[in-house]
C-alpha cells in the first residue's frame, strides 16, 4: 500500500507564514496546527540555554492559570527537553529510555501540565535560542500514530524557516531598542522624509518636538522648520537632483521660539534597498538634537571605566552627547580620518563593533549629567 501523502495543506502554510513576527498570527497558526494534528493543543516555547524561564510561550486555547503554573513551577524541571534537532520524537520513544521510577514521575508531571500524549520537535533558529514545538492529547485520548508523525515531520522544514524569520526579527527588534535608547539618551530624534517633505517615519523625540512646535512643525504631514533660512536651505537641498546631493549631507541650525535652545538638524540622503515607499526617489534621514533632553557625558569621566586615551575619550563623549563623527572631528579640531582612526581604536578597546553598542555601553558604565534648566536658557540666549 502506497504511503499516504502528508504534504501540509496550503491553508496551514498560509497561516504559518502570515506573520512570523506577530504573536496573534502564531496563535492562529498553532490553533490550525493542533486541528491538523488532531491534537488537544499545540505549544510553541522559545528559550535560551541555561535560563530558568522561557522567553515566550504560546499555547492558544489553554487555561491561563495552568500555563502560568507551568512557567512558575514546571519549566525548569520539564523532562521532555533536549530532543535531537529537527527530529520528531514521541512521548513513547522518550519514555522507553527512562527507568521505571522516572516514568512514574514523568507521567505525574505531564498530567499536571501538557497532557498524557505528546509529539515534539526542537529547532534552533539561532545560536543559543531553542524553539520547542509540542502537540498534545489529553488524558483518555489515543496516542499519536504514524499518520500524525508524518504530518509533523512534513511541517518541520517550514517551521524551521518561519522560526529563523522570527529569530531574525527578535534580533532586529533588540538592536533597534538599543539604538532607540542610545539616541534617546543623547537627545536625538529621527525622521525620514521624502523629497516632497512628507514624513515617512518619526520617533518619539521628533514627535514631541513637532507637537510643541519647538523648531519643527508638520502641515498635512509635511515637515517645516521654524527658522526661515534653515527651511529655505532644506528646500534647496530637497530640490537638488538626487545625483547632485552631497552624500555627507548638511547640518541646519533652527532657533525655536521662547526659551528653547537652538536645535541642530543633520540631513543626509538615504536610498532604501527596496524602494517600496517612494519608487526610485531618494529619502532623507534627519537627525534632530533636542538640547533640553540630552544627557551630557564628560570625556574625563569615561577614562575611569574605559581604557581610552584622552583623544579617544573626547570622541566617545562627543558621540554619546549626540554629535556625529564628522561634527565631533570639526569641534575637536581634528581631521575626519583621524576621528575614524580613533573610533576604530575605541571599538577594539571596548569590544564593540557599532556606534549603537558603544553608546549603550557608555550609558551603562558612566552616569550622565542632565543639563539644568538655567543652563538651557543661558545657551538659548
Q: Could you give a quick summary of the protein structure above?
A:
This protein has 381 residues and is α+β, with helices and mostly antiparallel strands.
Quickly list its features.
381 residues; alpha+beta; Beta-Lactamase; Arc Repressor Mutant, subunit A; 3 domains; Tscrpt_reg_LuxR_C; WH-like_DNA-bd_sf; DNA binding; LuxR family transcriptional regulator; Sig_transdc_resp-reg_C-effctor
List the helices and strands and how they pair.
Blueprint: H1 10-17, H2 23-37, E1 41-48, E2 56-58, H3 64-74, E3 89-90, H4 91-96, H5 100-112, E4 117-126, E5 129-137, H6 146-185, E6 188-194, E7 199-202, H7 204-211, E8 216-219, E9 222-225, H8 228-239, E10 250-254, E11 263-270, E12 283-289, H9 299-302, H10 310-320, H11 325-332, H12 336-350, H13 355-365, H14 373-380
Helix pairs in contact: 1-2, 6-13, 10-11, 10-12, 11-12
Organism: Rhizorhabdus wittichii
Protein name: LuxR family transcriptional regulator
InterPro entries: Sig_transdc_resp-reg_C-effctor, Tscrpt_reg_LuxR_C, WH-like_DNA-bd_sf
CATH architecture of the largest domain: 2-Layer Sandwich
> Could you give me the name of the CATH homologous superfamily of the largest domain?
Transcription factor LuxR-like, autoinducer-binding domain
Largest beta sheet: what is the strand line-up?
2-1-5-4-3
Portion of residues in beta strands equals 15-25%
Largest sheet: 5 strands, antiparallel
Amino acid at each position: 500500500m502506497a504511503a499516504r501523502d502528508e504534504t501540509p495543506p496550503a491553508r496551514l502554510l498560509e497561516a504559518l507564514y502570515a506573520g512570523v513576527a506577530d504573536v496573534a498570527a502564531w496563535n492562529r497558526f498553532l490553533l490550525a496546527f493542533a486541528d491538523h494534528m488532531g491534537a488537544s493543543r499545540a505549544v510553541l516555547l522559545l528559550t535560551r540555554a541555561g535560563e530558568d524561564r522561557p522567553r515566550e510561550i504560546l499555547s492558544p486555547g489553554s487555561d491561563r492559570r495552568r500555563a502560568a503554573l507551568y512557567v512558575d513551577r514546571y519549566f525548569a524541571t520539564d523532562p521532555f527537553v533536549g530532543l535531537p534537532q529537527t527530529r520528531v520524537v514521541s512521548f513513547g520513544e522518550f519514555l522507553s529510555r527512562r527507568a521505571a521510577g522516572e516514568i512514574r514521575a514523568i507521567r505525574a508531571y505531564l498530567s499536571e501540565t501538557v497532557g498524557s500524549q505528546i509529539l515534539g520537535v526542537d529547532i534552533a533558529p539561532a545560536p543559543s535560542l531553542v524553539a520547542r514545538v509540542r502537540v498534545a492529547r489529553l488524558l483518555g485520548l489515543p496516542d499519536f500514530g504514524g499518520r500524525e508523525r508524518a504530518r509533523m515531520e512534513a511541517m518541520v522544514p517550514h517551521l524551521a524557516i518561519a522560526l529563523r524569520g522570527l529569530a531574525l526579527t527578535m534580533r532586529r527588534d533588540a538592536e533597534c531598542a538599543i539604538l532607540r535608547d542610545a539616541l534617546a539618551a543623547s537627545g536625538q530624534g529621527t525622521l525620514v522624509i521624502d523629497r516632497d517633505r512628507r514624513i515617512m517615519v518619526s520617533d518619539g523625540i521628533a514627535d514631541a518636538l513637532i507637537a510643541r512646535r519647538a523648531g519643527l512643525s508638520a502641515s498635512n504631514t509635511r515637515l517645516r522648520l521654524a527658522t526661515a533660512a534653515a527651511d529655505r536651505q532644506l528646500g534647496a537641498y530637497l530640490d537638488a537632483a538626487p545625483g547632485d546631493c552631497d552624500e555627507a549631507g548638511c547640518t541646519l541650525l533652527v532657533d525655536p521660539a521662547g526659551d528653547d535652545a537652538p536645535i541642530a538638524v543633520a540631513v543626509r540622503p538615504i536610498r532604501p534597498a527596496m524602494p517600496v515607499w517612494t519608487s526610485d526617489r531618494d529619502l532623507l534621514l534627519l537627525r534632530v538634537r533636542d538640547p533640553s533632553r540630552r544627557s551630557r557625558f564628560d570625556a574625563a569621566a569615561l577614562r575611569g571605566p574605559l581604557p581610552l586615551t584622552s583623544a579617544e575619550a573626547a570622541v566617545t563623549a562627543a558621540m554619546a552627547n549626540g554629535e556625529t563623527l564628522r561634527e565631533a572631528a570639526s569641534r575637536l579640531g581634528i581631521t575626519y580620518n583621524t576621528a575614524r582612526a580613533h573610533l576604530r581604536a575605541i571599538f577594539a578597546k571596548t569590544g564593540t563593533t557599532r556606534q549603537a553598542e558603544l553608546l549603550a555601553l557608555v550609558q551603562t558604565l558612566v552616569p550622565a549629567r542632565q543639563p539644568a534648566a538655567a543652563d538651557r536658557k543661558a545657551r538659548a540666549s
